[in-house]
Design brief:
The chain is built from 15 helices and 12 strands. The mean pLDDT is 95. It starts with a strand and ends with a helix. The chain has 369 residues and is an alpha/beta fold. α1 crosses α3, α10 crosses α11 and α11 crosses α13. A hairpin with a 3-residue loop joins β1 and β2.
Length: 369
């Protein structure tokens, strides 16, 4: 049977078409529609590209990545009118994403009305966070009435790499304490205690936590209010700066792409070197915090574009953590490979595990047919 996965972003649409034969999956086609003027139009473009692959056996299911499921969805679900309304009601928490996911869903449903459509939520994996991890130190009414709390994101990726790591050991994710680092343009760290997310660096929005490509990560809220009250900065403009002009880009003044920043640092750019140092230090701090949260870990896993490809960044993050049981092997770390691999045989094993969010969404969809 064929499963289509649609991953609607804020300005792009990724699509993957899989064929399932029992427990065997085959990727038939993948692509990205960028700079979209409307998600419905992007879906139509995707179907035009996929048309030759859609002949014969029909698409049995369509998996849709939805960024925000709030505290209402703890797993992937078949989309019906009730689910559609709940996703729509959560759009204020992710205005750049949920609306586009719904638009993609409605366009795909029109094209494939007989297929089972499934929503996979970035937040679902983190619904196991205990209250002491997701409650902010605000008046309690902000939690109960306004739903201000840590939700966490990148859950599909964190779940995939934790399961893939365990699969490589011939065991279950429930057998391990893992710290997973999804490092790309967006970055987050997750503490996974025997298969359950118990803490994660992103919070109410994906802005909290690590320094990222263009996002600031953790910042004193009073600093933002100071810019508003003392320097008359517009809140909307500050939000744009925090999300799109900060992080590696803001510190280096060069780029939000780690490859460009590394190249600039090699060329002697001091701000680029500072950006890398801040980035690595922030990741190291969160790793240390999650070692404390779980009283140790069995493995530290890197994934995402930076996590999978930037050996220098991995080495710098792990440098000076030998007393915590973490060390990378230089030869294993610098050896180029696209496969999952161990790069450190320390007490806490260090691994690189390529993520595959679309495959996990496809599996979730197939499991609900």
């Amino acid at each position: 049977m064929k499963i289509l996965v649609l991953n609607a972003g804020s300005s792009s649409l990724k699509f993957n078409l899989f064929e399932f034969h029992g427990r065997t999956e085959q990727l038939l086609q993948k692509g990205t529609i960028e700079r979209v003027s409307g998600m419905a139009d992007a879906v139509r473009q995707a179907f035009a590209i996929l048309e030759p692959m859609l002949s014969g056996e029909s698409v049995a299911g369509v998996g849709h990545r939805v960024v925000h499921g709030g505290d209402q969805f703890s797993e992937s679900v078949v989309i019906d009118s009730s689910v559609e309304k709940k996703i729509e009601s959560l759009s204020s928490l992710a205005p750049l994403h949920n609306v586009h996911s719904l638009e993609a869903y409605r366009a795909a449903r029109e094209r494939l009305p007989d297929a089972v459509h499934v929503a996979a939520f970035d937040t679902a994996f983190h619904t196991t966070l205990p209250p002491h991890a997701y409650v902010y130190g605000l008046p309690y009414e902000y939690l109960t009435e306004k739903k201000i709390r840590r939700y966490g994101f990148h859950g599909i990726s964190h779940r995939y790499v934790s399961q893939r790591f365990a699969e490589l050991q011939g065991k279950s994710a429930a057998d391990y304490r893992l710290i997973t680092c999804h490092l790309g343009n967006g970055c987050s760290v997750c503490a996974i205690d025997h298969g359950r997310s118990i803490d994660t660096s992103m919070g109410f929005t994906p802005l909290e936590g690590l320094v990222m490509g263009t996002r600031s990560g953790d910042i004193d809220a009073a600093a933002v209010l100071h810019l508003v009250t003392q320097y008359h900065e517009e809140p909307a403009r500050l939000l744009e700066i925090l999300n799109s002009e900060s992080g590696l880009k803001g510190i280096s003044g060069i780029s939000g792409d780690m490859r460009d920043v590394l190249q600039a640092a090699d060329g002697g750019e001091s701000r680029a070197r500072l950006a890398i140092d801040v980035f690595c230090y922030r990741v190291r701090k969160y790793i240390g915090a999650y070692l404390a949260a779980m009283n140790g870990a069995d493995a530290l896993i890197f994934t995402g574009g930076i996590g999978e490809n930037a050996a220098r960044v991995r080495a710098q993050i792990c440098a000076g953590m030998s007393n915590l049981g973490i060390a990378v092997d230089q030869d294993a770390n610098t050896k180029e490979s696209k496969s999952a691999r161990r790069i450190g045989k320390s007490v806490v094993e260090v691994w690189v595990v390529p993520t595959d969010e679309e495959l996990l969404i496809a599996r979730d969809t197939a499991g609900r047919l």
